[in-house]
Amino acid sequence: MTERKAVFLLVALVCGVVSMAMAQRIDVPDWEGSVRFELLASQNAVRPGDDLEVAVVAEIAPGYHLYGPEERKPSRTEVMVTEDLVGSQAPLFPPVVTRDLSGLGEFDLYEDRIAIRIPISVREVATGRAEVPVEVRVNYQVCTDHACSAPTHRVLSLRLPVATEGARIESRHEDIFVSTK
Predict the structure, then answer these.
(1) How much is the pLDDT for 40?
(2) What is the 3-state secondary structure (H, E, C) of the chain?
(3) Which residue ranges in the chain fall short of pLDDT 50?
(4) Is residue 65 within 8 Å of residue 143, measured between CB atoms?
């Protein structure tokens, strides 16, 4: 084979590979933008001794999912209150969706929008404060049907004003919380 033919074949091969790669759209998952978390409270203010709920609300983009709380670590979704002015009970996870993922087996997943409710109580040590901070750590792994991000976490926080004596405390986010009164 002449040098000229070899160069021509090499150029044709490279052009073919490049055009095939361009024809096949390679989607790289948007791990950072695939899930949006928010922390909400069931009431607008608190008093020391109050029992209420907070919720971790996750908006999961189409084509992505989180693993349910019964799956193995570190993939499963976990939430925990990390602030010491409030006590917490076990989280109340929503129902999961069970799906078979590309022959890997069945998994319990969350898709779309979910709310994980956490019963909390404001400790008496919050007496005299203007507000009570609430901090929740969310451990999770976001995946598509074919790939997963590395397991990660986010810390969500909010500050609940302490109600003055006689002030009315109102329920909030009734679409998420069952009445806590």
Answers:
(1) 97
(2) CCHHHHHHHHHHHHHHHHHHHHHCCCCCCCCCCCEEEEEEECECCECCCCEEEEEEEEEECCCCEEECCCCCCCCECEEEECCCCEEECCCECCCCEEEECCCCCEEEEECCEEEEEEEEEECHHHCCCCEEEEEEEEEECEECCCCECCCEEEEEEEEEEECCCCCCCCECCCCCCCCCC
(3) 6-24, 180-181
(4) yes
Can you give the residue ranges of every domain in the chain? 33-161
Query: For residue 181, what are its two tokens?
Result: 């009164």
- Those residues whose C-beta lies under 8 Å from the C-beta of residue 131, and which sit 6 or more positions away, are 159, 160, 161, 162
> Which CATH number is correct for 33-161, 2.60.40.1250, 2.60.120.10, 3.30.200.20, 2.40.10.10?
2.60.40.1250
Residue-wise pLDDT for 98-114, tens only, equals 988 877 788 999 999 99
Tens digits of residue pLDDT in 12-35? 444 444 444 444 455 678 888 999
CA distance 26 to 127: 56
